[in-house]
Amino acid sequence: RWGEMMNKLHGIIFAYLSNPDLRELTQHRNTCSIPYGGRYRVIDFMLSNMVNAGVSDVGLIVHANYQSLLDHVGSGKDWDLSRKHGGLRILPPFGYSGRREGVYRGRMDALAGVRSYLQYIRQDYVVLAGGDLAVNLPLNDIFEAHIRNDADITAVCTSRPMGSPKDCDYFTIGAGGRITDVLVHPPIAQGCESLEVYILSKQLLLSLVDHCAAHNIPSFSTGVLQAMAGQLKICPYVFDGYAARLQSVAGYFARSMELLNPEVRTDLFAPGRPVRTKDRSDPSTYYGPGSRAVNSLVADGCIIEGEVENSILFPGVVVEAGAVVRNCVLFKETAVRRGAAVSHLIADKNVEILPDRTLMGHSSYPIVLAKGSQV
After folding, report:
1. How much is the pTM?
2. pLDDT for 132-190, tens place per residue?
3. For 139, 166, 294, 298, which has the most beta carbons within 10 A of its beta carbon?
4. What is the dihedral of CA 216, 222, 224, 228, to 10 degrees?
């Protein structure tokens, strides 16, 4: 019976945001395809949440700057989503007749842009989620709760707020366990913070998309949750596991450093719900004589001959002899040449730090080196 129910869930991931507060990290990619955790991209987490819950059809809504996302997800085969019928579909803004050129103004705008796709969804229920949240959700349990509560919309939230309020929504949970009020981007956090993952029926979704399109309402938060909290039965699902929102450079750096804590890693990479990513077959990392690596996540394919401490290294990073790397996040193929010393630094792909250079950022203001730069 349960297997039949899960076949009733279709995934829609909003992957069109490029957050300007992430500066250099979103110059060449959108927020969903930012590398995170040594070998993953942020989108991997939401895709894996869906696949682990038996969701076999997922639509990715994209807009601009999505080449790196396409290169990463490909046909979806690393997530077992490469199928003749259904599977992973990339939904660019074809035939989008928005009133403004440029980006979608909000989730309802984005859904209106892909309405013809929504119409032909084979499943009875849809899970809507952002692709820019690193979290390992028990989506089966959330869907079960949705059915059990006979909810119109189930909204996943956390009682441990961690985002910046200006970018988040908050729920007031009234008696009877319903959401009675929704605060959108308030000055201070109050109540449970929304993780922006929602389950609702396909029928309700289509009627909401049509209602919002007819009334020129671009936002799901204000147009649906806030405006309809009185009429619809909106039930919270409180999830208090680890969740990382990547909303600024300092936030990205802090969320990355939290992964050095084994408890956080166990929570995010829960053994029963694996996080899948694009397969790269790199050789094991080489540690030269006299090299030192302490409390760091080091991917395969690196060459370490210097010192690495409290850092996250993606595949193909080179740390030459005499170089010291502390509190850094180094993306793929970055090279730190001999005698260089770096700390509190995020280096995008293919960065070269020249011999004997010293670069020191701060945890609240890390240095970011753009892709391919030489310093």
Report:
1. 0.93
2. 899 999 999 999 999 999 999 999 999 988 888 988 999 999 988 999 999 999 999 99
3. 139
4. -120
